[in-house]
Design a protein that fits this description.
Blueprint (H helix, E strand, L loop, with lengths): L3 E4 L4 E5 L3 H19 L4 H23 L2 E5 L3 E6 L3 E6 L5 E9 L2 E9 L4 E4 L1 H4 L3 H15 L1
Antiparallel strand pairs: 1-2, 2-3, 3-4, 4-5, 6-7, 7-8
Helix pairs in contact: 1-2
């Protein structure tokens, strides 16, 4: 299965950021930095370009350091949330896993939604490396075995 893979006898599945995504973010950060230096003639313009470059660079580093966004096994799931926080949830705390599909302005968006009661956690195809429906299909047997 692309993006997720079973490893070992314990059936551990992982989904990670697409490998090209951090490269694209780093390239965009470099473009913002260079444009800020080359085009912006005032402090405000250069500052805005620097903030944009730093933000994109930080997200690229996050993608390189924490590429696995979702890991699942018979015991539960582990997610990377926020900037770099890992969160382990046993299946008993997971109320539902589904694909949330929205249509807006002619665009269709799919997110993997993990419902843990008072909180919803979302992962996109960019986070998973595969379409959310594919990740859901692989998670279904594990989530049933954990309940």
């Amino acid at each position: 299965m692309a993006g997720g893979n079973a490893a070992g006898d314990g059936r551990v599945l992982e989904w990670r950021v697409q490998r090209k995504l951090p490269v694209v973010k780093l390239a965009a950060a470099a473009v913002f930095a260079l444009l800020g230096l080359a085009v912006a003639s005032d402090l405000v313009g250069r500052s805005l370009a620097a903030v944009a470059a730093a933000g994109l660079g930080a997200y690229a580093v996050r993608d390189l350091v924490f590429p696995v966004r979702l890991r699942a096994d018979a015991e539960g799931v582990t997610l990377v949330t926020g900037v770099a926080r890992r969160r382990r949830l046993p299946w008993s705390q997971v109320d539902r896993v589904r694909v949330d599909e929205r249509h807006r302005l002619g665009l269709r968006t799919e997110l993997l939604e993990i419902d843990i009661g008072d909180e919803l956690l979302f992962l996109s195809e960019r986070d998973l490396g595969v379409p959310p429906a594919e990740a859901l299909a692989a998670l279904a047997p594990l989530s049933r075995s954990g309940h």
